[in-house]
Each structure stands twice: as C-alpha cells, then as structure tokens.
C-alpha cells in the first residue's frame, strides 16, 4: 500500500493538472488515482513504433471489437453461471445447457437454419477443416475429388493440400479479373467422383461476394455437397442456407462483434451430410466436435448473431456511406487509385485499394496511425504480394501496393476523414520520392523498360 | 506494487525495451524513412551527373541514385535519390546518398552492402535492399564514366581488385 501512495503522489505532483488544494494522503485517493486511465499523452511505443495515441482501427476483416451488448450477455457465464453445459446432474449444468441451446437458436435464426444443424467449434478455421477434410474422409471410398477456388482462405487451401498428400485430387478454380469464379468453368470441372465444392461467400482480402445461389444450383444439379466459408459474410449480407443450397457453412464469432475463440458449423440434416470428426473425445456436439462447449463464448456468439439480425440493414447502409466517403475522399485528391475486385458484387465494408507507384509496405509503415493491413493478417508478414491479388491477374507492381480498409459498425465519420487525410499525405510523400511516378510524369512507359531482375 | 510504482516514475522507459521486437524496424530505418536525406532529382542529361537505376517494379523495389561529380577532382559534390520500395529500401538509399557525398568516386565503389545492412540492422529478409543500394551506387558511377567517354583509370583498377 505504501508504494501505491508514493506512486500516486509522485504522479500527481508531476502531472500538469496539479490540483489547487492538497489532498489528504488517504488510500481512497490513491485508489482513484490508480483507476484513472493511463496517461496517453506521452505516446505509445510498441514493436519499435512510436505513436501519439492509439491508432484508429480500420481492419475489421482481421477481427472486430466485441459489441458491449454482447459482453453484457456473456459476463454472467464467467462468474456466476459457470456450470459445464454437459453436466446433467445439477442446476449449474442445466442453466448453461439452456444458454448454449438459446445461442444455437440465435445463430441458426440468422442463417435460416434449424438449431439442430449448428455445431459449435473454436472458429471458422476449425469449421473449414472439419468440412473439407471431414467430408472427404467420410466419403473417401467413392469420392476422390474436391473443387475449390484459388482465392480461398489459407485454411481451406491448406486442408486441400493436405488431402492432396493423401491421394485426393483437387481443382483450384481460377477467378476472373473481378475476383468472381466462372460458373461454366465450375460446371465443366465437376467429375463423377467429385465429393465437395468449397467456395467462400465473401472474400476476406478483397470483399467480393461470389454468386452463391448459382453455385448452389449447380451443386444441387450434380448432387454434390456444397461448403462455403461464410466467416466474412455472417451478419453482413443476408444468408439463407436454403436459397444458397449449402450443405456445410463455416461461421466465426469474432468477425460479427462477438468474442474470439468461437465459431459455428452449419451441417445440413436433409439431405444429411456426414463428416469424420477431426477431434475425438467425449462426444459433445453430437460427436462432431468433442470438447466442453465454452458457454460464455457461445452465448456471446449467439448474442452477436441476434444483434446482427436486428442491425444488419442499418449497418449495411452506414458502412456503405462510410465506404463512399473514404473512396471519394481519397479519389478527390489522388489519381491512380484502383479498387481491387468487382465493384458491383462486393461487401461495402471491405475496400481493397492499390495506389500506383507507391509500395504497400512503406505506405503501411507511414500509416502507423491507421490500423490497416496489406491483405490478410495471416500473410501480411511475408514479402510476397497477396496470392489473392495475383489470382485476379493484378499486375505485380500493383499487387505490391495494395491496402485493405475494413469498415465496421463502430467506425465513425471522423475516423474515415482522418484516414483519408493521413493516406493522401503519405501517398503524396511517397510518390514524391518514387522514381516510377517521376518517369510516368515525364511520359515514360514503365512497362517498356527492361528492368534488371533481382 | 513496487514494480508498479517504479514504472510510473520511470515512465514508459521499461515497457519500451520490453516491447521492441527485433524483427521490426531499427530506429535508424524509421528515422531515415521519416526524414529521408537527399530526396530529389538532378538533370540526367547534365554531363557532370551520373544516374543509377536498379531494381524492378514487379519485385517491389526500384532505386534511382544520382551523383554530381566535380570534373576536376573526381569528387562527388552532391547526391540524391528516389526510391519505390519498402521502408528498408528507402532507408538504404538515403544512407547511400549520405555516404557518397564528399567522397572520391573510387572511394564510393568500396561501399559494401554489408556495411549499409549493419548500419541499419537490416534483418535477413531485407538484405536485398542494401544490395540494391550498393548496385545503385555502382550504376551511377558507371553511368557518369560512360558519359565522360573514358573510365577513370584508377577506378577500374579498384573495381577489378574488388
């Protein structure tokens, strides 16, 4: 306690807002002083980067904050209703079980499914693993072929690669320059032993929405299970598992203002789709995913889905307005700004831009007051340009310059305006020192130059 | 409690050393990125100017380094650069211009990429940036000599030795 008093006194005497009267050295005063949010005027220094305050957050595709209303729903299940939902012998277990089942219904409601078709997991990555590997392993006697796209999330691609090592055949469908797949190409890739088609609904890097209904129709025609990774779509675009005709769908909690560490897998009951479990154990979640269901997280995901259901329309409108504000703001001051991916079929909250003649990594380094990323969080550490942009056929020099702005429920107009200002300043500064921009201004065609390769 | 108090007294000093992970930019890189030295361009048709352009946009790095040479003494009186690339590439070229200024042409050819990399504490994945800077210096000197039509005798000797 003594040290606490000392620290509080020193802080108060150093602080510019010294109180006019001398406060008694009571412990109560010390406690209030310690409870004050820490002083941010000195700036934050982390990983070698010094910034004056917390950066504004425009990376909603990586993860979203937990909605306070979601947190409110979760809290009781941490401290007082902490029972194991699988305990059948006492009230603690019963109330937890009830909460889990209510959350299951909330999730099912948002995608027009039955609660019995929802399996809780640790996240979309686990769902994708269960779907791709689980289905193929279960039907391995007859089905040996998987169709997916080149722009899938890494966990789908990696699961497919794993299947290839086990002797399965995988077709990676190319995408058109707008990021969408060619339906005729999908149709012609289907074989008699195709066991699964996996196409993500909303792309995590460029935000394009695949033609889900049409793909579902083709899969129905050939009677092939259709899996979709809808982690980025949940709560953002209307989802109807029957309209899309999906057999399996991967969902994530932390992309819809829910907690991290929870996801849900939709598994169709009629016609029934079966999978080989990837996790064996106590047989929870109908044996698909053993392991104690984390009640607070699941309750959070349920609450997040219910909120999304209520607010999707409003959010969509707001996010679209903010996206237009951002894009128009940047375009008003800069030329050579390209939106990657289709402009019609896309989710507004994901704006992937390429700034010609500026390198993405140096732009990110200068934009340290804006939390954005050059693509997916999983791959932003590597020097390679994004495989998604390369699949779109974006020129390599343009693929090096991409930045993803993610707008969400809690993004404000002030944040957008500040992001526009900072981005424009930084791009102008970097173009000023870009030899490519100089050449273009002199009228030299960069593509005609014989570059020395390194 | 005591730790809490000392942290308050010392400010963020402690937290800083704990958090700066080595795989992130060295402070010299950040400094050169924020305040790049000698950004600009000389007239490349000027006979006293040598221009080196290296790299490729597809690789994500293009460096243009220019030197202005005193024809009497062979001394580099001024240098400037423009770079398309990551923070390390910008810092490497900025350092390169600082180092070549005021030196003899033969002297700058001995600048090694390893010295630049060491000065900026570049991690292995960024070593190509320093190599590019070395290449840019050499290309600029070569361009100047080509313009003059006669290579500086001692320079070629040095290059051959290296």
Question: Explain this structure to me?
Answer:
The complex is a heterodimer of chains A (454) and B (162). Chain A has 16 helices and 14 strands. With 454 residues, chain A is an alpha/beta fold. In chain A, helix 9 (212-222) links the parallel strand 7 (194-198) and strand 8 (226-229). Chain A starts with a helix and ends in a 13-residue tail after the last helix. The model of chain A is unreliable at 12-40 and 377-381 (pLDDT under 50). Chain B has 162 residues and is an alpha+beta fold. Chain B has one domain (23-161): Sufe protein. Chain: A, CATH 3.90.1010. Chain B contains eight helices and three strands. Chain B has a three-stranded antiparallel beta sheet. In chain B, a hairpin with a 4-residue loop joins strand 1 and strand 2 (61-70). The longest helix of chain B is centred in the last third of the chain and has 22 residues, at 127-148. The model of chain B is unreliable at 5-23 and 153-162 (pLDDT under 50).
The largest inter-chain interface, given as chain pair and residues per side, is: A-B, 40 and 47 residues
Largest sheet of chain B: 3 strands, antiparallel
Strand numbers in spatial order across the main sheet of chain B: 1-2-3
Taken from the alpha-carbon principal axes, the silhouette of chain A is: globular
Topology as H/E string of chain A?
HHEEEHHHEHEHEHEHEHEEHEEHEHHEHH
Give the CATH H-level superfamily of the largest domain in chain A: Type I PLP-dependent aspartate aminotransferase-like (Major domain)
Question: How would you spell out the order of helices and strands of chain B?
Answer: HHHEEEHHHHH
What is the CA-atom radius of gyration of chain A, in angstroms? 25 Å
Distance between the termini of chain A: 62 Å
List the uncertain runs of chain B.
5-23, 153-162
How would you describe the oligomerization state of the chains in this entry? Answer: heterodimer
Mean pLDDT of chain B: 79
Q: What is the strand arrangement across the widest sheet of chain A?
A: 4-10-9-8-7-5-6
Supply the number of structural domains of chain B.
1
The coarse silhouette of chain B is globular
Strand content of chain A: 5-15%
CATH class of the largest domain in chain A: Alpha Beta
Cα radius of gyration of chain B in angstroms: 19 Å
Q: Give the averaged pLDDT of chain A, no decimals.
A: 88
Structural class, from secondary structure content of chain A? alpha/beta
